[in-house]
Amino acid sequence: MKSVLFSIILTIGLVGGASAQELIPSWFEKLPDPPARMKFEVGYAGKYTTEKRAKAAAVDSGLKNLAKQIQVRLQFDIEEIGDGRFRLLNPSFKESYEGIHLRTVEENYSVVDSLITNDGYYVLLAYPTKKNLHVGDSGAQKWGSRPEWINDLPHEKGFVYGVGMVAKYRSWLRAWYDADEYARFDLGKNLKITAESIFASRRDNRTTVESVILKQSYDLILQNATIVARWHDTQNDAYYSLCRAPRQ
């Protein structure tokens, strides 16, 4: 059952084309650990006519991610139908967060660091707000080597992980949005999932055709689910996100 969900995450949403990032801040690739009782989150935006608008869009993105980090509801179901001749997949992903959490972070956050490149604008946000936070060297850098967590999820006591992946998107903004979202859904699957199988047979031109319907689903509220790492495979134009949350 595990491989079915992961294969959906790998292939859904492919739209072709390419618009890649060449340089990123270090904290976009790997989120630093925040001080106790605080949260870090990343926001990002594409090119705008002015730097002010780009930063505003990046901050808005980061605040929404902070709200999801506080609490997000994930509703997932997939139906797989096959009879040996064909295989049909029908997945559904729904992600939602409370407006009250968004208003909470909007009233009490600070921009820890920011970076503007030829591709877009990036911000690192902290919640609740705190002055004079530093995250070390955060200048523009190229993507590092392929991380181990893509093929082998971290084994950390008290935490659960999930990986999301998309490829060949026209917009890197949309690519990261979907990769982050699928990482949360993959994490949710690793926490809780209900599965059932339905078998049926019918006569077709004097032969018996056996069909199977596989259903997987969950409705889950996650707290403190954080996108802690990202990686872009520039050769294959694939985007990977790693999500971590305390085991519930």
Instruction: Note the beta-strand portion.
Output: 35-45%
Number of helices: 5
Major sheet strand order: 4-3-10-9
Please mark out the parts with pLDDT under 50 across 5 or more consecutive residues, or reply none: 1-18
Please state the CA-atom Rg, rounded to the nearest Å.
Answer: 20 Å
Helices and strands: which structural class? Answer: alpha+beta
Averaged pLDDT: 86
Q: Count the E strands.
A: 12
Principal-axes shape call = globular
Alpha carbon gap, first and last residue: 21 Å
How are helices and strands ordered from N to C?
HEHEHEEHEEEEHEEEE
Number of domains: 1
Assign a percent range to the helix content: 25-40%
Largest sheet data: 4 strands, antiparallel
What would your notes on this structure say?
Helix content is 25%, strand content 40%. The protein is globular and about 75 Å long. The protein has one domain. The chain contains five helices and twelve strands. A hairpin with a 4-residue loop joins β11 and β12. The two termini are 21 Å apart. With 248 residues, it is an alpha+beta fold.
